[in-house]
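Convert to structure. Protein one:
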Amino acid sequence: MSWIINNKVLWRIGILLLWLVAFSGPWGFDTIYVPGEYTCSDPWIRYTEQFCAATISGSEGLAILGRDFFTMIRSWSQGETMITSLSYLVLFIVIVFFLLAPVYNSLLSLFAGDRRRPTALNALVWLPTLIFCLLTGFLSILFPSPLLWGLWVMAAVAGAAVFMEWRSLAVIPKPQPAG
Protein backbone atom coordinates (compact mmCIF):
# COMPACT_ATOMS: atom_id res chain seq x y z
CA MET A 1 0.00 0.00 0.00
CA SER A 2 2.83 2.40 0.76
CA TRP A 3 4.27 1.55 -2.69
CA ILE A 4 1.22 3.21 -4.24
CA ILE A 5 1.85 6.46 -2.39
CA ASN A 6 5.64 6.40 -2.68
CA ASN A 7 5.55 5.81 -6.44
CA LYS A 8 2.46 7.82 -7.38
CA VAL A 9 4.29 9.89 -10.00
CA LEU A 10 5.85 6.76 -11.51
CA TRP A 11 2.61 4.82 -11.94
CA ARG A 12 0.75 7.91 -13.17
CA ILE A 13 3.39 8.39 -15.86
CA GLY A 14 3.10 4.66 -16.67
CA ILE A 15 -0.67 4.99 -17.06
CA LEU A 16 -0.23 7.98 -19.37
CA LEU A 17 2.28 6.07 -21.50
CA LEU A 18 -0.09 3.10 -21.72
CA TRP A 19 -2.84 5.55 -22.70
CA LEU A 20 -0.66 6.62 -25.64
CA VAL A 21 -0.16 2.98 -26.68
CA ALA A 22 -3.88 2.26 -26.41
CA PHE A 23 -4.86 5.41 -28.29
CA SER A 24 -2.51 4.54 -31.15
CA GLY A 25 -3.90 0.99 -31.35
CA PRO A 26 -6.88 -0.08 -33.47
CA TRP A 27 -10.33 0.97 -32.27
CA GLY A 28 -12.51 0.36 -35.29
CA PHE A 29 -12.76 -0.54 -38.95
CA ASP A 30 -13.05 1.41 -42.15
CA THR A 31 -15.00 -0.84 -44.51
CA ILE A 32 -15.39 -0.91 -48.28
CA TYR A 33 -17.59 -3.08 -50.43
CA VAL A 34 -15.61 -5.78 -52.22
CA PRO A 35 -17.54 -8.77 -53.61
CA GLY A 36 -16.44 -12.15 -52.29
CA GLU A 37 -14.84 -13.29 -55.55
CA TYR A 38 -12.19 -10.56 -55.26
CA THR A 39 -9.36 -10.47 -52.74
CA CYS A 40 -8.52 -7.69 -50.34
CA SER A 41 -5.09 -6.11 -50.70
CA ASP A 42 -2.93 -4.89 -47.85
CA PRO A 43 -3.80 -3.11 -45.47
CA TRP A 44 -7.35 -4.29 -46.14
CA ILE A 45 -8.51 -7.61 -44.70
CA ARG A 46 -11.64 -9.65 -45.42
CA TYR A 47 -14.16 -8.41 -42.84
CA THR A 48 -17.32 -10.13 -44.03
CA GLU A 49 -18.25 -11.98 -47.18
CA GLN A 50 -18.92 -8.73 -49.02
CA PHE A 51 -16.64 -6.24 -47.26
CA CYS A 52 -12.96 -5.57 -46.70
CA ALA A 53 -11.80 -3.48 -43.77
CA ALA A 54 -8.76 -1.60 -42.52
CA THR A 55 -8.28 -0.84 -38.85
CA ILE A 56 -8.55 2.73 -37.56
CA SER A 57 -6.58 3.78 -34.50
CA GLY A 58 -8.15 5.87 -31.76
CA SER A 59 -6.15 8.90 -32.85
CA GLU A 60 -7.23 8.46 -36.49
CA GLY A 61 -10.85 8.11 -35.39
CA LEU A 62 -10.62 11.26 -33.33
CA ALA A 63 -9.03 13.10 -36.28
CA ILE A 64 -11.87 11.94 -38.53
CA LEU A 65 -14.44 13.10 -35.98
CA GLY A 66 -12.66 16.44 -35.68
CA ARG A 67 -12.57 16.92 -39.45
CA ASP A 68 -16.27 16.11 -39.68
CA PHE A 69 -16.95 18.43 -36.75
CA PHE A 70 -15.40 21.40 -38.57
CA THR A 71 -17.25 20.45 -41.78
CA MET A 72 -20.48 20.50 -39.78
CA ILE A 73 -19.64 23.92 -38.30
CA ARG A 74 -19.01 25.24 -41.83
CA SER A 75 -22.37 23.90 -43.03
CA TRP A 76 -24.07 25.56 -40.04
CA SER A 77 -22.49 28.87 -41.01
CA GLN A 78 -24.03 28.45 -44.47
CA GLY A 79 -27.50 27.92 -42.98
CA GLU A 80 -27.70 24.14 -43.23
CA THR A 81 -28.81 22.93 -39.82
CA MET A 82 -30.10 19.45 -39.15
CA ILE A 83 -30.91 17.58 -35.97
CA THR A 84 -28.35 14.92 -36.95
CA SER A 85 -25.60 17.52 -36.98
CA LEU A 86 -26.58 18.62 -33.48
CA SER A 87 -26.43 15.03 -32.24
CA TYR A 88 -23.06 14.69 -33.97
CA LEU A 89 -21.83 17.76 -32.11
CA VAL A 90 -22.87 16.27 -28.77
CA LEU A 91 -21.28 12.93 -29.67
CA PHE A 92 -18.00 14.63 -30.62
CA ILE A 93 -17.86 16.61 -27.37
CA VAL A 94 -18.63 13.52 -25.26
CA ILE A 95 -15.99 11.39 -27.00
CA VAL A 96 -13.34 14.08 -26.73
CA PHE A 97 -14.17 14.59 -23.05
CA PHE A 98 -14.07 10.88 -22.22
CA LEU A 99 -10.78 10.32 -24.01
CA LEU A 100 -8.82 13.49 -23.32
CA ALA A 101 -10.02 14.79 -19.94
CA PRO A 102 -8.33 11.99 -17.97
CA VAL A 103 -5.02 12.77 -19.63
CA TYR A 104 -5.17 16.48 -18.80
CA ASN A 105 -6.31 15.75 -15.27
CA SER A 106 -3.59 13.13 -14.77
CA LEU A 107 -0.95 15.56 -15.99
CA LEU A 108 -2.19 18.15 -13.52
CA SER A 109 -2.38 15.64 -10.68
CA LEU A 110 1.29 14.71 -11.21
CA PHE A 111 2.07 17.98 -9.43
CA ALA A 112 -0.71 17.79 -6.84
CA GLY A 113 1.23 15.79 -4.28
CA ASP A 114 -0.58 13.67 -1.71
CA ARG A 115 -3.79 15.61 -1.39
CA ARG A 116 -7.16 13.88 -1.30
CA ARG A 117 -9.20 16.17 -3.56
CA PRO A 118 -7.02 15.91 -6.72
CA THR A 119 -6.68 12.15 -6.22
CA ALA A 120 -10.44 11.69 -5.89
CA LEU A 121 -11.05 13.94 -8.90
CA ASN A 122 -8.60 11.94 -10.98
CA ALA A 123 -10.37 8.69 -10.11
CA LEU A 124 -13.74 10.23 -10.94
CA VAL A 125 -12.49 11.53 -14.30
CA TRP A 126 -11.10 8.12 -15.30
CA LEU A 127 -14.33 6.31 -14.35
CA PRO A 128 -16.48 7.60 -17.29
CA THR A 129 -13.61 6.72 -19.64
CA LEU A 130 -13.66 3.17 -18.32
CA ILE A 131 -17.44 2.95 -18.76
CA PHE A 132 -17.25 4.49 -22.26
CA CYS A 133 -14.55 2.02 -23.39
CA LEU A 134 -16.38 -0.98 -21.94
CA LEU A 135 -19.68 0.02 -23.57
CA THR A 136 -17.98 0.68 -26.89
CA GLY A 137 -16.12 -2.61 -26.63
CA PHE A 138 -19.24 -4.59 -25.83
CA LEU A 139 -21.08 -2.93 -28.71
CA SER A 140 -18.23 -3.94 -31.00
CA ILE A 141 -18.90 -7.57 -30.05
CA LEU A 142 -21.56 -7.45 -32.77
CA PHE A 143 -18.55 -7.69 -35.10
CA PRO A 144 -15.96 -9.24 -32.79
CA SER A 145 -12.35 -9.05 -33.74
CA PRO A 146 -9.12 -9.45 -31.81
CA LEU A 147 -7.73 -6.72 -34.07
CA LEU A 148 -9.44 -4.03 -31.95
CA TRP A 149 -6.97 -4.37 -29.10
CA GLY A 150 -6.50 -0.59 -28.66
CA LEU A 151 -10.01 -0.16 -27.29
CA TRP A 152 -9.58 -2.98 -24.78
CA VAL A 153 -6.16 -1.74 -23.69
CA MET A 154 -7.73 1.69 -23.08
CA ALA A 155 -10.41 0.04 -20.92
CA ALA A 156 -7.67 -1.76 -18.95
CA VAL A 157 -5.69 1.47 -18.56
CA ALA A 158 -8.76 3.34 -17.32
CA GLY A 159 -9.57 0.49 -14.93
CA ALA A 160 -6.00 0.49 -13.61
CA ALA A 161 -6.10 4.27 -13.17
CA VAL A 162 -9.37 4.12 -11.23
CA PHE A 163 -8.05 1.29 -9.04
CA MET A 164 -4.72 2.97 -8.30
CA GLU A 165 -6.31 6.35 -7.56
CA TRP A 166 -8.88 4.81 -5.20
CA ARG A 167 -6.20 2.75 -3.45
CA SER A 168 -4.01 5.81 -3.00
CA LEU A 169 -7.03 7.73 -1.74
CA ALA A 170 -7.48 5.13 1.00
CA VAL A 171 -3.89 5.72 2.18
CA ILE A 172 -3.93 9.52 2.21
CA PRO A 173 -4.94 10.67 5.70
CA LYS A 174 -8.19 12.56 5.98
CA PRO A 175 -7.83 16.20 7.01
CA GLN A 176 -8.69 16.88 10.63
CA PRO A 177 -11.49 19.36 11.29
CA ALA A 178 -10.38 22.69 12.63
CA GLY A 179 -11.22 23.31 16.22
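Protein two, convert as well:
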Amino acid sequence: MPKEKMFQVKLNRNYVPKGYDEVEDARCAQRGVPYEPKGYRVVQAVEAPHAGAISHGKLWAGTVVQLPLDEAASIINLKIAERDDPIPGFDAPDANAALDARQEELAALANKLEAKDEALEKLQADYKARMTALDERSRRLDEKLAALESAENVPEADDKKADDKKADDKKADDKKADDKKADDKKTEKK
Protein backbone atom coordinates (compact mmCIF):
# COMPACT_ATOMS: atom_id res chain seq x y z
CA MET A 1 0.00 0.00 0.00
CA PRO A 2 1.61 3.30 -1.08
CA LYS A 3 2.18 5.83 1.67
CA GLU A 4 -0.21 8.78 1.45
CA LYS A 5 1.37 12.23 1.02
CA MET A 6 1.12 14.29 4.19
CA PHE A 7 0.87 18.06 4.53
CA GLN A 8 1.69 20.04 7.67
CA VAL A 9 -0.89 22.54 8.99
CA LYS A 10 -1.40 24.62 12.13
CA LEU A 11 -4.94 24.47 13.50
CA ASN A 12 -6.80 27.75 14.01
CA ARG A 13 -9.71 25.95 15.72
CA ASN A 14 -10.18 22.68 17.56
CA TYR A 15 -10.42 19.77 15.13
CA VAL A 16 -10.93 16.00 15.13
CA PRO A 17 -8.97 14.47 12.22
CA LYS A 18 -10.70 11.95 9.96
CA GLY A 19 -8.11 9.31 10.89
CA TYR A 20 -9.09 9.34 14.58
CA ASP A 21 -10.54 6.02 15.76
CA GLU A 22 -12.43 6.43 19.05
CA VAL A 23 -12.72 2.67 19.63
CA GLU A 24 -9.00 2.11 19.17
CA ASP A 25 -8.28 5.06 21.44
CA ALA A 26 -10.46 3.53 24.16
CA ARG A 27 -8.71 0.12 23.84
CA CYS A 28 -5.30 1.75 24.15
CA ALA A 29 -6.48 3.66 27.22
CA GLN A 30 -7.68 0.38 28.84
CA ARG A 31 -4.32 -1.25 28.21
CA GLY A 32 -2.42 1.86 29.33
CA VAL A 33 -0.76 2.18 25.95
CA PRO A 34 -0.62 5.56 24.20
CA TYR A 35 -2.93 5.81 21.20
CA GLU A 36 -1.08 6.06 17.87
CA PRO A 37 -3.39 7.54 15.26
CA LYS A 38 -3.43 6.27 11.71
CA GLY A 39 -3.74 8.79 8.91
CA TYR A 40 -2.27 11.79 10.73
CA ARG A 41 0.68 12.70 12.92
CA VAL A 42 0.84 15.35 15.64
CA VAL A 43 4.04 17.36 15.23
CA GLN A 44 3.59 19.88 18.05
CA ALA A 45 0.76 19.38 20.54
CA VAL A 46 -0.96 22.09 22.52
CA GLU A 47 -2.24 21.55 26.05
CA ALA A 48 -5.98 21.54 26.73
CA PRO A 49 -7.32 25.05 27.29
CA HIS A 50 -8.47 24.25 30.83
CA ALA A 51 -8.20 21.46 33.38
CA GLY A 52 -10.63 18.57 32.94
CA ALA A 53 -11.27 19.18 29.24
CA ILE A 54 -12.12 15.92 27.50
CA SER A 55 -10.60 15.63 24.05
CA HIS A 56 -12.10 12.45 22.47
CA GLY A 57 -9.54 12.76 19.68
CA LYS A 58 -9.90 16.51 19.44
CA LEU A 59 -6.77 18.41 18.61
CA TRP A 60 -6.72 21.85 20.22
CA ALA A 61 -6.29 25.09 18.29
CA GLY A 62 -2.59 25.91 17.80
CA THR A 63 -1.59 22.25 17.33
CA VAL A 64 0.70 21.55 14.39
CA VAL A 65 -0.32 18.32 12.66
CA GLN A 66 0.49 16.45 9.46
CA LEU A 67 -2.64 15.38 7.59
CA PRO A 68 -3.31 13.67 4.26
CA LEU A 69 -3.10 16.21 1.44
CA ASP A 70 -6.84 16.17 0.60
CA GLU A 71 -7.91 16.61 4.22
CA ALA A 72 -5.34 19.39 4.76
CA ALA A 73 -6.54 21.24 1.66
CA SER A 74 -10.13 20.88 2.82
CA ILE A 75 -9.58 22.34 6.29
CA ILE A 76 -7.36 25.13 4.91
CA ASN A 77 -10.20 26.13 2.57
CA LEU A 78 -12.62 26.06 5.53
CA LYS A 79 -10.20 28.30 7.52
CA ILE A 80 -9.92 25.66 10.24
CA ALA A 81 -6.15 25.57 9.67
CA GLU A 82 -3.37 27.40 7.87
CA ARG A 83 -0.29 26.18 6.07
CA ASP A 84 2.66 25.43 8.30
CA ASP A 85 5.16 24.19 5.77
CA PRO A 86 8.58 25.84 5.85
CA ILE A 87 9.35 28.18 2.94
CA PRO A 88 12.70 27.22 1.39
CA GLY A 89 15.38 29.84 1.93
CA PHE A 90 13.66 31.61 4.84
CA ASP A 91 15.02 29.31 7.51
CA ALA A 92 18.58 29.72 6.29
CA PRO A 93 20.86 31.69 8.64
CA ASP A 94 21.86 34.09 5.87
CA ALA A 95 18.32 34.60 4.56
CA ASN A 96 18.40 38.30 5.43
CA ALA A 97 21.65 38.75 3.53
CA ALA A 98 20.13 37.01 0.52
CA LEU A 99 17.04 39.24 0.77
CA ASP A 100 19.21 42.35 1.05
CA ALA A 101 21.21 41.28 -2.00
CA ARG A 102 18.00 40.66 -3.93
CA GLN A 103 16.63 44.06 -2.88
CA GLU A 104 19.84 45.75 -4.08
CA GLU A 105 19.57 43.86 -7.36
CA LEU A 106 15.95 44.97 -7.73
CA ALA A 107 16.92 48.59 -6.90
CA ALA A 108 19.64 48.48 -9.59
CA LEU A 109 17.11 47.11 -12.08
CA ALA A 110 14.67 49.86 -11.08
CA ASN A 111 17.38 52.48 -11.70
CA LYS A 112 18.12 50.99 -15.12
CA LEU A 113 14.41 51.00 -15.92
CA GLU A 114 14.14 54.65 -14.85
CA ALA A 115 17.12 55.57 -17.08
CA LYS A 116 15.53 53.74 -20.00
CA ASP A 117 12.24 55.53 -19.33
CA GLU A 118 14.05 58.89 -19.46
CA ALA A 119 15.78 57.89 -22.70
CA LEU A 120 12.44 56.79 -24.13
CA GLU A 121 10.83 60.11 -23.17
CA LYS A 122 13.71 61.94 -24.89
CA LEU A 123 13.29 59.83 -28.01
CA GLN A 124 9.55 60.44 -27.98
CA ALA A 125 10.09 64.20 -27.71
CA ASP A 126 12.62 64.07 -30.58
CA TYR A 127 10.20 61.99 -32.63
CA LYS A 128 7.39 64.46 -31.93
CA ALA A 129 9.59 67.40 -32.99
CA ARG A 130 10.60 65.62 -36.19
CA MET A 131 7.01 64.69 -36.97
CA THR A 132 5.95 68.32 -36.44
CA ALA A 133 8.70 69.47 -38.82
CA LEU A 134 7.66 66.84 -41.36
CA ASP A 135 4.01 67.86 -41.04
CA GLU A 136 4.99 71.50 -41.68
CA ARG A 137 7.10 70.51 -44.67
CA SER A 138 4.28 68.34 -46.00
CA ARG A 139 1.86 71.26 -45.59
CA ARG A 140 4.17 73.58 -47.54
CA LEU A 141 4.63 71.00 -50.30
CA ASP A 142 0.86 70.52 -50.48
CA GLU A 143 0.47 74.29 -50.89
CA LYS A 144 3.09 74.35 -53.67
CA LEU A 145 1.42 71.40 -55.38
CA ALA A 146 -1.95 73.10 -55.17
CA ALA A 147 -0.42 76.25 -56.67
CA LEU A 148 1.12 74.22 -59.48
CA GLU A 149 -2.13 72.41 -60.13
CA SER A 150 -4.02 75.70 -60.27
CA ALA A 151 -1.33 77.05 -62.62
CA GLU A 152 -1.81 74.02 -64.86
CA ASN A 153 -5.52 74.80 -64.99
CA VAL A 154 -4.79 78.43 -66.01
CA PRO A 155 -2.94 77.56 -69.26
CA GLU A 156 -6.27 77.55 -71.04
CA ALA A 157 -6.56 81.22 -70.24
CA ASP A 158 -2.87 81.64 -71.06
CA ASP A 159 -3.38 79.73 -74.32
CA LYS A 160 -6.22 82.09 -75.20
CA LYS A 161 -4.00 85.04 -74.41
CA ALA A 162 -1.23 83.49 -76.48
CA ASP A 163 -3.65 82.86 -79.37
CA ASP A 164 -4.92 86.42 -79.10
CA LYS A 165 -1.33 87.66 -79.11
CA LYS A 166 -0.53 85.55 -82.16
CA ALA A 167 -3.61 86.88 -83.90
CA ASP A 168 -2.62 90.43 -82.99
CA ASP A 169 0.94 89.73 -84.15
CA LYS A 170 -0.39 88.29 -87.41
CA LYS A 171 -2.61 91.31 -87.93
CA ALA A 172 0.34 93.55 -87.20
CA ASP A 173 2.50 91.56 -89.63
CA ASP A 174 -0.24 91.67 -92.24
CA LYS A 175 -0.59 95.42 -91.72
CA LYS A 176 3.15 95.85 -92.05
CA ALA A 177 3.12 93.74 -95.18
CA ASP A 178 0.23 95.81 -96.58
CA ASP A 179 1.99 99.01 -95.62
CA LYS A 180 5.16 97.76 -97.26
CA LYS A 181 3.24 96.85 -100.40
CA ALA A 182 1.61 100.26 -100.36
CA ASP A 183 5.01 101.89 -99.96
CA ASP A 184 6.40 99.75 -102.75
CA LYS A 185 3.54 100.79 -105.02
CA LYS A 186 4.09 104.42 -104.18
CA THR A 187 7.76 104.13 -104.97
CA GLU A 188 6.99 102.40 -108.24
CA LYS A 189 4.65 105.16 -109.28
CA LYS A 190 7.20 107.80 -108.75
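The chain has three domains: 6-83, 90-153, 159-189. The first helix runs from residue 22 to 31.
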